[in-house]
């Protein structure tokens, strides 16, 4: 059996002013053939799950093309036309196929297609025809439409946030498509899309209210004749009709059962809609609490519990060292994984005003990187850092300090990471140590803080700092929970702020909770 593997992966923040051009995809990675295996085979990515299933089940995995850009603004028509044209051409020309496995993100928006994932799956289905099983594995932040589900035979969503089960869920998709191709099962899907969303600050699946919703979804998977159940948190920064939470149930030929389970799971979540949208700390409160609660550095070789089996990150009984280590503040408004600028200075500004020492964060600032490189290691210089992408993420902040290590940018992480990635690249980067006790990692590429190796590879030991700023909401947890004394979410301004009322939505469904109070079920 021959299965095609392909996909365009992008989480589109429609409020970002930075377009996802073809060049942005080139910078992040347009992979063809063996390049895909080189990038993902040894990772915990969805495609690694597809490849593992190929080895174990004996089908041939034909790696066609995969393209990914960082989560920024809307995909240009030129980018989608060029990427989909080449990719779908491969699918058309290299067939026939016994199955297709797609690896996107699930929240893609292009200039031409607001529901780009549905358009891509429609085109795939048109090429291979109705008789070839098509499977798709989606990020838990996917905005999933009925069209995407209708265009596929198996639609499976990751179940953990941060995303630790990516490979596991990819393998499940491949397994079901393989069994479908062999005629062993007849998958039937149903998606329920209640009129609600979950705020980004409540999407951590290791705590309530999401913890019990995920557990309910997993338990429903054990019902007779059920092949899989998925819960999608959705992505609130994409102004599209399908934005919001959804549940997908796949049964073996039982459409009525699939519908009932999806609706029952959604109805349970509806009762928790208020808790799913509660606010978190302000910048001032978070910094004050962090400064007061800090005890001391984490000893060498000591980490908090972090499961490595793909399960949700859960709260555990404290150890004698659990109170030691940095207080990690999650910068919600500058969530790089959600399409933000990576150069927000809102927290930095207040931290300087509060004269906080032992402070560590990264900032995307190619201009400052270049100034440091020109000055050279050991030079003391003045910089205007951050706040250069737009007017949503603060103004540039003047800092004086010493240029530290200068590095080209690539690094590797073998510890568990959000999304299962292994290879990273910050671009040319520099350590800048300020005269007032702060360390800033300046990067020339927009980089999140999802791998602790980002700091270790520069000689920075985050365990020794008082306060660490992690740009994200849930994605930095696998990296920083093992060394953190505490994690505090901070509601900052920006293109990924938790204050959704600051955005002007034009395409979303109405009514939609929490913007309105719909009647559900209708």
Write a brief caption for the model:
By secondary structure, this protein is α/β, with parallel strands linked by helices.
Measured between the Cα atoms of the first and last residue, the distance is 45 Å
Strand order of the largest sheet: 12-13-16-17-11-18-10-19
Low-confidence stretches: 308-312
Share of helical residues: 25-40%
Taking all Cα atoms into account, the compactness measure Rg is 23 Å
CATH top level assignment of the largest domain: Alpha Beta
CATH topology of the largest domain: Rossmann fold
Give the name of the CATH superfamily of the largest domain: Response regulator
Mean pLDDT: 95
CATH-level-2 architecture of the largest domain: 3-Layer(aba) Sandwich
Q: Helices, strands, pairings?
A:
Blueprint lengths: L1 E8 L12 H7 L1 E3 L1 H7 L5 H12 L2 E9 L8 H17 L5 E4 L13 H13 L5 E5 L7 H5 L3 E4 L8 H16 L5 E6 L17 H11 L5 E7 L13 E7 L2 H16 L12 H11 L33 E5 L14 H8 L5 E6 L1 H10 L4 E6 L11 E11 L2 E3 L10 E3 L3 E6 L3 E6 L9 H4 L10 E4 L6 H4 L5 E5 L32
Parallel strand pairs: 1-3, 1-4, 4-5, 5-6, 10-18, 10-19, 11-17, 11-18
Antiparallel strand pairs: 2-3, 7-9, 8-9, 12-13, 13-16, 14-15, 16-17
